[in-house]
Amino acid sequence: MKIRKICCIGAGYVGGPTMAVIAQKCPEIKVTVVDFNQARIDAWNDENLDNLPVYEPGLDQVVAEARGRNLFFSTAVDKAIHEAEMIFISVNTPTKTYGEGKGQAADLKWIELCARQIAAASDTDKIVVEKSTLPVRTAEAVTDILDNAGNGVKFQILSNPEFLAEGTAIEDLHKADRVLIGGDLNTQGGREAIEALVGVYSHWIPRDRILTTNVWSSELSKLTANAYLAQRVSSINALSELCEVTEADIDEVSRAIGADSRIGGKFLKASVGFGGSCFQKDILNLVYISRSYGLTEVADYWEQVIKMNDHQKGRFAKKIIKSLYNTVSGKKIAFLGWAFKKDTNDTRESAAIYVADHLLCEKANVHVFDPKVKAPQIQSDINYLQSRNQEENESLLSIDTDPYGACRDSHAVAILTEWDEFKTYDWQKIYDSMLKPAQVFDGRNILDHDALRTIGFRVYAIGKA
Ligand code: NAD
Ligand code: UGA
Fold first, then answer.
1. Which residues pair with 7 in a beta bridge?
2. What is the DSSP letter of 400?
3. For atom 17 of ligand 2, which residue has the closest CA?
4. Residue among 233, 255, 346, 373 whose CB has most ligand 2 atoms within 8 A, to mutate
5. DSSP characters for 261-325?
């Protein structure tokens, strides 16, 4: 079966870029991305490509090429579902904040809502693709809802998790290491559905990189791929603390470990802690699932990855406080970076939020500069934690539009995100404008520490004595 019309529910960080690339690579397929968030859809349709709701290098060109040709963004969810042959569900699946599984399980209410909307708006057979990251066996529930719609429509359910990383989304989509498609390999209908989706991706992905599995393997592989990646970060971060007390250097240790081809050099960069919308949520979900099957040791093993990450964020904040003579009350501390990594405007679960919160609890005056994150987002990230009331947050936390202004008259500058531009700043000028002793806390190990020390800075770097 050749697909001509695709609908994607959810125009977020995954739905937007993923569908833009499918539309770019498959000009004969009409791709409609729908969302019930009107403001988000308006931003996707904005004439000015700088106003797209997601910042990703290269995304603007892809959207410019396909939008209006075969790529459309709309709030008309039912209409798009009705006319599509293949429907991707790419909605958010955050950690539950209430009830059973609170703080660990994935909240699947938007997934269920999508399934019910699809069931209600369909009168022809459809292939439904889980693009969101989901607990293993979610397809069972989705199938149950769709099969009981009572409309005589036949649905095939596929799992096609997304592996793109933010900041490199377009590159990752263009040159994916692999595309994973889980489906019902035991039935003719299931195999045809898998082949239909393979047909979409094979427009640009080599066939040997498209892996097909059963649905459960596909669902579980996504959760566990993230757990594996995050585990590498927590492992190197655990070693960074050991380096600081033994005079080993974490970058040297990392290079030596990564040179082993069985281990590989990627994802071994020590940091102030991993952030992002998914690592923590997906591991917590893995922990919850393991516990719900009674697998205590498995759950405890993966939970440690999160505990280590919390420890890393906490000890960075404590290091700043200790170095500023155990009190930061009323002291100006500049934060360079708020996004959870460079080249994205996404701040979800960013380490910066937690480090700032720790310092604000000690009544520090934190001044933030980030090249892509806007002020209301930063205030809302801090307010969301509910550690203080909004007025107090507004009086303690300032957002600067100029990095030199953020650093002026500060006691310390902390690097929270590895934005390339931070390396090119005039650090002599920053030093001259700061209170002395001027301190730099490099939470990403991106600056030239010897050069900073020559200027006169006191420098703390992760994993270095
Ligand atoms: P997001 O919050 O940016 O986007 C989700 C969108 O879905 C929102 O705009 C929301 O309004 C919309 N939505 C929710 N329910 C809807 C409904 N019933 N009808 C219409 N619109 C609806 O989330 P995201 O970052 O794109 O993540 C989506 C999924 O992809 C999650 O499961 C996530 O774990 C997974 N994922 C994310 C990334 C990433 O880099 N962000 C990478 C791989 C996988
Ligand atoms: C991650 C995965 O890399 C993607 O494959 C996956 O699709 C995605 O999660 C998801 O499911 O959401 P993402 O969170 O966008 O992608 O970005 P990463 O590059 O993985 O970085 C995550 C965090 O780890 C960032 O805070 C980053 O700074 C940190 N990190 C990463 C380190 O501290 N050290 C490293 O060596 C690598």
1. 32, 87
2. -
3. 165
4. 233
5. TTT-STT----S---SSSHHHHHHHHHHHHHHTT-HHHHHHHHHHHHHHHHHHHHHHHHHHHHTT
- Residue in 230, 227, 222, 218 with CA at minimum distance from that of residue 299: 227
**Measured from the CB, is residue 162 less than 6 Å from ligand 1?**
yes
**Which one of 175, 178, 226 would you pick to mutate in the ligand 2 pocket, going by the greatest count of ligand atoms within 8 A of its CB?**
226
Separation of CA 2 and ligand 1 centre (Å): 26
Nearest ligand, CA of residue 342? Answer: 2
DSSP state at residue 164 = -
Measured CA to CA in angstroms, residue 260 lies from 161, 230, 254, 263, 265 at distances of 29, 19, 10, 5, 8
Cβ count near 325 (within 10 Å): 9
Instruction: Give SS3 for 158.
Output: strand
- Domain residue limits, the chain: 5-205, 278-461
| 5-205 and 278-461 share one fold | yes
State both tokens at 385.
Answer: 């934690």
Tell me the C-alpha distance between 304 and 298, whole Å.
10
Q: Indicate the pTM of the whole model.
A: 0.96
Distance between first and last Cα of the chain: 61
Q: How confident is the model at residue 373 (pLDDT cuts 50, 70, 90)?
A: very high
Question: Is 113 a pocket residue for ligand 1 (Cβ < 6 Å)?
Answer: yes
- The answer to whether 211 is annotated as binding is no
Task: For 16-48, write each residue's pLDDT tens digit.
Answer: 999 999 999 999 999 999 999 999 999 999 999
> DSSP secondary structure string, 348-361?
TT-HHHHHHHHHHH
Nearest ligand 2 atom, CA 233: 34
Please name the residue whose Cα sits nearest to atom 3 of ligand 1.
12
**CB-based pocket (< 6 A), ligand 2:** 133, 162-166, 226, 229, 233, 267-269, 271, 274-279, 340-341
**Residues recognised as catalytic:** 278
Instruction: Judge: domain 278-461, CATH 3.40.50.720.
Output: yes
Q: Indicate the CATH number for domain 5-205.
A: 3.40.50.720
Alpha-carbon distance of 174 to 171, in angstroms, equals 5
- From atom 6 of ligand 1, which residue's Cα is the shortest distance away? 10
Q: Which tens digit of pLDDT belongs to each residue from 69-98?
A: 999 999 999 999 999 999 999 999 999 999
218 lines ligand 1 (CB under 6 A): no
